[in-house]
Each structure stands twice: as structure tokens, then as C-alpha cells.
Amino acid sequence: MPLSNQLAVFGHPIAHSKSPRIHQAFGHQLGIDLRYQAIDVVDGNLAAAALRFQQMGGSGANVTLPFKQDAYKLCRSLSANATRTQVVNTLHWRGDHWFGDNTDGPGLVRDISERHRQDLRARRVLILGAGGAVQGILSALLDAGVDTITLANRSPAKADALCDLIGEPARVKSLYWQDLADAGHFDLVLNGTSAGVQGASLSLPFSLLTPRTLAYDLSYGPAATDFLAWAKAGQCWLAVDGLGMLVEQAALAFALWFGQTPDSEAVYQNLRTTP
């Protein structure tokens, strides 16, 4: 196996990750022999873990919570999207340094617009949370033509800082969490909090939803259960988890590493039918 085919995903916790299964399926599909491992960065030191991985022949990696901002600092060169969002979820070793990209936002937009056939243009969007996962999707949503994005986070200062980073005050603004009940309804409600991953529940008003609202959780599986149950109870017409986004961002990362684009739909359907 070529050294360039040694891949990994960094995170903590990471045992639940479907990324190894997804990329092994992509490799099999395209006849590429690869090894993909999940690396739990228990000590929180992504730089040291990435160095060890590269010294063992690793050349590409995905990065998940809570290290996307750390991955940005690790890179000497960056894609335009990573430069703009200042978070990285995809690493590619380029001779003597890590190149960083962020495929989360484009992956989300592909899942919503192509798989679920929803036009994002002129949509009023509410995003819950203001961490690295949310930071990575904002520019792609703006580029897709959404009208406005409202960020609500339990720490208002964090939401305000993210709005300042994006620098489009007419389109991206923050909202105090306690004011959600008076915010009106939205065309798209995205859950980017870590509540589901941590086993916590969200208390959200149904007034955010209409029968035409799309509710989307960036998490998938059990972590998305509580938010999706709320959305369905509120008569939201479509409530989906982030499995499609996971597959689409992975396909974009795979294309960066190997220059070939896999069939993401086949892998997505397989994951849906055999979790």
C-alpha cells in the first residue's frame, strides 16, 4: 500500500465515527487500496497526534470535534474556504506541511440542495450554536444565497464574535437564547450545538417552526434524536440528521486526496439501511 493511502480521522470521542467505513467504501468503489483509522486525541494535543501520524506515513486526515480550530492553526497553507471560516476539517500532507480545507459547509449545501432538493436562496435561517461546526458552514450557506442567518448561542459573546468574524452584519446577526420565543419562524433551523452528543436536551419553542420549515441537525444517529423529535412534534415538514452532510463532506475530502470523486449516494443509502 502506498504511504499516501494512509488516512485517519482525529477527534475526541471518536469511537462512534462512521468516517472509516465511509472512506473504505469510497476506496473499494474506486479501486483504491487505503487504510483509514480513527485516532482518539485523548490528551487534546492535535499537533502532536498529527505529527505522529505523518511520521508513520499518514498523508490525509479528517478532523472532527473538538479540534477544527486547532487544525486551522496547524496548517501552513489553506483553501479559500478554510481561510474564510478559520476552521479546518480536512488535512492533506503536501511534501513538508499540512494543507487545510473545510468541506463541511459545501457538504451541507450539497446534502440539502441535491439530496433533499431544497432551494436555499432567500431563506431565513436560524442556527443554534456557535462552535467550530457552525463556524465551518456559515460561508457556504451565504454563498448558496440564503437571505439571513441568525445565530443563537447560550454564550452570547461567542455568537457575537462569530458574527464579527464573518463580517456581514446585514446578513449574519446574533440573538440571545432567551429571546428565541420572540424571534418568529424560520425557513431552516439548524442545530449545531453539542447538546445531543453530550446527552443533554434542548428546550426550544415551537414558534420557530412552520409546516414549511426544514429542521436539520449537524449530528447524526442518537445525538440528533432529541432535536428531530422536537421538530416533528412542532409539525415541521422535514426533519433530517447530518448523515448526508457527513457523507458529502467526506466525498469532497476524498476528491482532495485522490483526485477522484466517489459516488456518495450509494454510500449514503448503505449507511441508512445498515447503520
Automatic annotation (TrEMBL):
Residue span, Shikimate dehydrogenase substrate binding N-terminal domain: 9-91
UniProt enzyme class: oxidoreductase
Domain SDH C-terminal: 242-270
Protein name stated in the entry: Shikimate dehydrogenase (NADP(+))
Domain of life: Bacteria
Annotated Quinate/shikimate 5-dehydrogenase/glutamyl-tRNA reductase domain residues: 114-194
Species in which this protein is naturally found: Ahniella affigens
GO MF terms held by the record: NADP binding; shikimate 3-dehydrogenase (NADP+) activity
Subunit: Homodimer.
Gene Ontology biological-process entries: amino acid biosynthetic process; aromatic amino acid family biosynthetic process; chorismate biosynthetic process; shikimate metabolic process
Pathway terms, separated by semicolons: Metabolic intermediate biosynthesis; chorismate biosynthesis; chorismate from D-erythrose 4-phosphate and phosphoenolpyruvate: step 4/7
Binding sites annotated in the UniProt record for shikimate: 17-19, 64, 89, 104, 220, 249
Keyword terms, alphabetized: Amino-acid biosynthesis, Aromatic amino acid biosynthesis, NADP, Oxidoreductase
GO CC entries: cytosol
